[in-house]
Every structure is written in C-alpha cells, then in structure tokens.
C-alpha cells in the first residue's frame, strides 16, 4: 500500500511469511560507521541508495513479524518503493531447503532471514573491491572517507552524516591523491575506476541469472570469484554465491561442519549437497556461532597505504 505525501512516499509492505529486517538488510551495511546505513535508537533502519531516477533515503520500521513500514525521500523514492519487495527478499525461494544438522537450529530460530537483492551493482561492487586482500577495518575506513569526500548528502530528514554513494562518473574521476588519502592502494583504485568506466554494462548484471551476472563482472580485470560472489550476495540476491578465496571462510566452514579446517576446494565439497543454497548455509553457520575455528598464528599488521 502506497501513501504519497508532499515530500515523502510511505509504503506498508506486508509479506506472506516472516521477515527479519535486520538479518535481511544487514549484509548491505559495510561497517558500523557506514554513511549509507544507520540504525537509530528507536529501532528504525535508515538506508540511502542511488537509483536510475536519483538518490533516495529510506526509513524502515517493523510493524509486526511480517510487515514493515518504509518511508522514502528524494528523486528516487518512487523507483525504490517499486523495488521494495525485491530488496526485502520476496523472490528468495527457500522451498526444498534442508540445512545441515549444524545449521538446523539457526535455521529454526531465524525464519525471517532472506537474501536481499538491491539490484545496485556498483553500490555493492565498490566496497567489495575495497575489501580485497585487506583487513576489513581498513576497507570500512576507506569507504567512509571516500563517501564523505565524494558522496552527496542524503535527501530528507536522514540522521546526521548519512551520504549517498557517488555515481559512476564521479568514481571514475576520483583523483589519485584521494585514493591515497583514503588508504586505498593503486591496484584496488585502478579496479574501481575500470568498473566505473563500464558501469552501465555491469549494472545490466542485476537483470541476469546470477551465474551470467557474475561472469559479466569477472570480465573486468581485478574482479575475481571472491568479489563477484560478494556482489552477487547483495545486488543479485544469490543464495548460492560462496566467497571462495576469503582468508578465513574455508577454515571456519570446515570447522563448523567437520571439526577440522579445510581449504577452498574442501569447503566447496562440503557445501555441494546444499546447492543452490550454499551461501545461505554459510550465513546460518555464522549466525549459529558454529563457524569459529581456533585462530592460528599472530594477527597480521594493518598496512596503512596513506604512508606509502
């Protein structure tokens, strides 16, 4: 149901099955200080996005276990409202899914878990590239700095400091010294610029089957299977995209399912019976606290590329 006010569009979205707003939208957040995502003390979730029709700010509040009320501000409000069911995982089909025993309790306790589908490829791709081969705290710091510098203010009454991601032309024009100030090395910076220059082609991946969409992304030098999986999980709603190549993931999944660490090949063998829900299984293992393999060796130092 839509209610249009002078500067605001309100949607009451009622689902026919449980919807956990936090678990569903949570993967779209890149760190506690993400300027595009905020949870306020009243329990509302605020999110910004840049759509074809322009920027939008959304405020999500829970009415009951199957209903959320979403307010929209900005030129992209109508488009965002139309895409709301997709964003909230209404197309996420769990029929026939039987989790492994180790994830069964988490699956039972989280009936409202959905795979979100933002359909915004560059919004998922840039932070994924920033997270390539660095500690996540470094990537999140870079994301905040770049949006503060090159993003635009969130429309409407958004909480202070919220920003909208830059458009592709702006990403392509970020000067070398700003990548340096953000702590982003030249390899990742070049990858983001390459993606921005072909952004229109990459955004088409949102309308493709996930395997085809990922193949489209991987045509760009610097985008491999890990990065395409991270994008597919968020922008394409792919419940089967496994982040192969993650420094910790294979060991954690192996530990959760067998009590032993494993490598990427071993992880894929263990997850194979659960296709096309392999990413869903991984999420459930982490939600259930199973994927916590004992750490080995000293922590790696955090490199500061701003000093190079």
TrEMBL record:
Gene Ontology biological process terms from the UniProt entry: base-excision repair, AP site formation; DNA alkylation repair
Domain of life, source organism: Bacteria
Annotated catalysed reactions: Hydrolysis of alkylated DNA, releasing 3-methyladenine, 3-methylguanine, 7-methylguanine and 7-methyladenine
Signal sequence, renumbered to the chain: none
GO molecular function, one term: DNA-7-methylguanine glycosylase activity
EC numbers for this chain: 3.2.2.21
Keywords attached to this entry: DNA damage, DNA repair
Cellular-component GO terms for this entry: cytoplasm; protein-DNA complex
Protein name, as recorded: DNA-3-methyladenine glycosylase II
